[in-house]
Structures are given as C-alpha cells and as structure tokens.
Design a protein that fits this description.
By secondary structure, this protein is an alpha+beta fold. The chain has one domain: 2-Layer Sandwich (Gyrase A, domain 2), CATH 3.30.1360.120. Helix content is 21%, strand content 31%. It is built from three helices and seven strands, in the order βββαβαβββα. It has helices at 34-44, 68-73, 118-130, and strands at residues 9-12, 15-21, 24-28, 58-63, 90-95, 98-105, 108-114. The strands form two sheets. A four-stranded antiparallel beta sheet has the order 4-7-6-5, with no helix packed on it. Strand 1 and strand 2 (15-21) form a beta hairpin. The two termini are 29 Å apart.
Length: 140
C-alpha cells in the first residue's frame, strides 16, 4: 500500500495510516493488538523507517450521528463541510486548547488525543453535544 502524502488517511489490511507531517504517519488499527501492530510494522519497515509505539499515550474517540459537524465545529477551527473535509481527510489541530488529530472515515470522525487530557476532552464533547440536545454514548 502506498502511504498517504499530506494530511489524508488511507487504510489497507486493517491498518489506517494518517499523514501527520512530512514523512510521518500515525497508524491505528481495530484488528491488531497495540504491541503487535508496532512490532509488525517495525519488521515490515526495517531499514526503511523507524516505528515508535505510542498506543499507551493516545485515546481515539469516534464521533458520528446527527449534527456531528456542528458539535465538532464548537471546538475545531477547520472547515468540516463534506466537500472540503472529504472522506479520508485529516488535520492536526486543537479543540479547547487540547491537541487533537482528526480524520474523517465516511460520515464518522475519529479524534486522537493524548490520554492525559482524554477526560477533559470527553467532558468537552459531552458539553458540545448537549448544546444540540445530544448525548455522548460509549460502545464496546
């Protein structure tokens, strides 16, 4: 699979690669265990790139549903119009003074935040959703 160039994401073999800077990608997978993913990538990329396991340092939250763009717009200073922030688009930005990596996956948005601010982020998300009469629910 060719890695994405720029602030976009691409998925292949159960792993999504999100471009976060020149020559840098954030890899995330719902099908690989954290350590297994890092080890597998390190083996496959040996001699080509370095791999650092940051899985214990980030929390990834998926948001979707009615008014998702309006909810996120309460804190994101990027244009989430579906014709601008298209499927696969990504951005490194801030929400309520917290660093966040956001990418679009279909009609859903995934947001990766540092675990140390995950509680504060969740609180912000609940407050932003409440403004639209929505609740934040967790799924397994």
């Amino acid at each position: 699979m060719a890695l994405p160039n720029g602030p976009v994401s691409a998925i292949g073999k159960g792993v999504r690669f999100v471009g976060v800077g020149p020559g840098q990608w954030f890899a995330v997978s719902e099908t690989h265990a954290n350590e297994a993913l890092a080890n597998d990538l390190a083996k496959k990329l040996e001699g080509l790139a370095s791999v650092a396991d940051h899985s214990s340092g980030r929390a990834v939250v998926r948001v979707e549903g009615p008014a998702v763009r309006d909810v996120l717009a309460k804190g994101l200073a990027i244009d989430l119009d579906p014709n601008v922030f298209v499927d696969g688009a990504a951005a490194v930005t801030n929400i309520s003074h917290m660093g966040v990596l956001v990418w679009r996956d279909g009609e859903a948005f995934d947001l990766a935040v540092f675990r140390s601010v995950a509680g504060s982020f969740y609180g912000w998300l609940e407050e932003a959703a409440a403004a639209y009469g929505l609740d934040v629910v967790t799924t397994s």
